[in-house]
Amino acid sequence: MNLGIYGGDLAYSITYEKFDDMGGYLKCAKQLADDLGIPLAFDQSALTTYKKYKTNKDSLEKIVFNSYSEVDKTLKSNERIGLASLVVSGGWLEGLYATLTTLGNTPNNEKSQTLYKKIWEQKNHLTMIISLLEQFKDDKSFTPIIQDFKSIKTVYDGLSEKSSINEAEIAGLAKIVGEVRSKVISH
Q: How many CA atoms lie within 13 A of 54 on its CB side?
């Protein structure tokens, strides 16, 4: 899941042009990929290209996309679908966390409406992620992860309709997402 979280961090860094943060994220992602037996994901070529184009948003997006595509392809081809689902889940979790953090206490108004809509749309993605993770429910290591994602869904299920989500509801969602993320990154 942490490999997915680093993917989310890399995407955030590129989107908001925080290029100085990327080197550390890439090194951690490379180490995690190596530990999982996916050495081609963040190979020397990707790291060299990063150094060469470390302020070119388009090139950086391509590097990260290619690296994570290699992670996905390698895990799926080696029938490590459970690990692939964890990477996807971690990336989703980090994306939601970053969006909630960026939104903060901003009221639902014309300027913030796009972020509020994106947060609402993640409810559907969460349902799909839970279904994906439940395919591995017989593996005891998935049990707490499934429970954590279901706790996020419980909060989502209590939200108002998408056009009327308010700051208090966003704060409640941010709290549970932050708690789940803290569990993941502490391992």
A: 14
Residue 55, phi then psi, degrees to nearest 5: -125, 10
Whole-number Å distance between alpha carbons of 25 and 52: 16
- Nearest Cα neighbor of 91 from 69, 116, 114 is 69
* Max CA pair span of the chain: 48
Alpha helices in the chain (DSSP H): 2-15, 19-35, 44-52, 57-77, 81-103, 113-134, 143-157, 167-185
Q: What is the pLDDT of residues 60-78, one digit of tens each?
A: 888 888 888 888 888 878 7
Question: Both tokens of residue 38?
Answer: 């996916």
pTM of the model: 0.86
* Cα separation, 170 vs 104, whole angstroms: 8
Q: How far apart are the C-alpha atoms of 178 and 43, rounded to whole Å?
A: 31
